[in-house]
């Protein structure tokens, strides 16, 4: 059985005062679902110290272990600060920083070398969906951005349609199920049934308390990667609770 995962991506939001949200989130993390918060890098160490029972993650790391890369953060630095996870390949990184699958793959290897678990994001644009290219795009991203050596322990994949991120638009449950079943099949084919079945698959893009329950009922959805609705405990706790309920 895969442990459900409710992951919050705070993006470039949150000053020290935001750490006060973590207490209630940690209290909600006593159920069957694992709860992960990825705050901005400035808060990773403090969040890891403050939040017993929550997993903490970074939102990106450099592909190199150290060196002359001003402003960048290595996977080992995140791990040293108390992070257990790192999000890689988010569409905002792919767009804002021109990251491609090859970059994501190199970062993933660096993260694994440092002992971090990776939440690796894939997703199609609206144009790609409208041209019926969604599964081709997702298949290509999975093939090119995941290195060899994936396991159910070191990899989580998040399906995040770009057009659903921060827009309030959500795919139908059939559309989510189609992509998640496809990703499961691709992972089983490449890594073998055992590993392929053990990698957790998250849906991300405008997940809210009001739609979480129906999304968590979709086949091969093992949780969510949540942006805006993870910033406040009042929004994120009901999502954690819906995931706990779906775990039975
Ligand atoms: P959103 O962001 O929940 O605000 O749509 C999701 C994400 O980008 O991870």
TrEMBL record:
Enzyme Commission code(s) on record: 5.3.1.1
Compartments where found: Cytoplasm
Domain of life (superkingdom): Bacteria
GO annotations of cellular component type: cytosol
Pathway(s) per entry: Carbohydrate metabolism; erythritol degradation; Carbohydrate biosynthesis; gluconeogenesis; Carbohydrate degradation; glycolysis; D-glyceraldehyde 3-phosphate from glycerone phosphate: step 1/1
Entry keyword set: Cytoplasm, Gluconeogenesis, Glycolysis, Isomerase
GO molecular function, one term: triose-phosphate isomerase activity
UniProt main location, coarse: cytoplasm
Catalytic residues identified in the record: 90, 160
Pfam families xrefs: TIM
Cited InterPro entries: Aldolase_TIM, TIM_sf, TrioseP_Isoase_bac/euk, Triosephosphate_isomerase, Triosephosphate_isomerase_AS
Positions of substrate binding: 9-11, 166, 206, 227-228
UniProt subunit comment: Homodimer.
PANTHER family associated with the record: TRIOSEPHOSPHATE ISOMERASE
Known function: Involved in the gluconeogenesis. Catalyzes stereospecifically the conversion of dihydroxyacetone phosphate (DHAP) to D-glyceraldehyde-3-phosphate (G3P).
Family: Belongs to the triosephosphate isomerase family.
HAMAP family: TIM_B (MF_00147_B)
Official protein name in the record: Triosephosphate isomerase
Organism, scientific name: Salipiger thiooxidans
């Amino acid at each position: 059985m895969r442990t459900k995962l409710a992951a919050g991506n705070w993006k470039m939001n949150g000053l020290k005062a935001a750490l006060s949200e973590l207490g209630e989130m940690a209290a909600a993390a006593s159920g069957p679902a694992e709860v992960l918060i990825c705050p901005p890098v400035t808060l990773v160490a403090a969040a890891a110290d403050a939040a017993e029972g929550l997993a903490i993650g970074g939102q990106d790391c450099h592909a190199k272990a150290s060196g002359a890369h001003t402003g960048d953060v290595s996977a080992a630095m995140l791990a040293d600060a108390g992070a257990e996870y790192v999000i890689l390949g988010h569409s905002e990184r792919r767009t804002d920083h021109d990251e491609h699958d090859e970059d994501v793959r190199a970062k993933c290897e660096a993260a694994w070398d440092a002992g971090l678990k990776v939440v690796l994001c894939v997703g199609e644009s609206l144009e790609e969906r409208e041209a019926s290219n969604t599964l081709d795009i997702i298949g290509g991203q999975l093939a090119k951005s995941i290195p060899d050596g994936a396991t159910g322990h070191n990899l989580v994949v998040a399906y995040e349609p770009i057009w659903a991120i921060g827009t309030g638009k959500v795919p139908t449950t059939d559309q989510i199920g189609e992509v998640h079943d496809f990703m499961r099949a691709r992972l089983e084919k490449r890594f073998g049934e055992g590993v392929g079945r053990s990698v957790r698959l998250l849906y991300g893009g405008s997940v809210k308390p009001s739609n979480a329950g129906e999304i968590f009922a979709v086949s091969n959805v093992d949780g969510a990667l949540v942006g805006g609705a993870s910033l406040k405990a009042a929004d994120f706790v009901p999502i954690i609770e819906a995931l706990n309920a779906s775990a039975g």
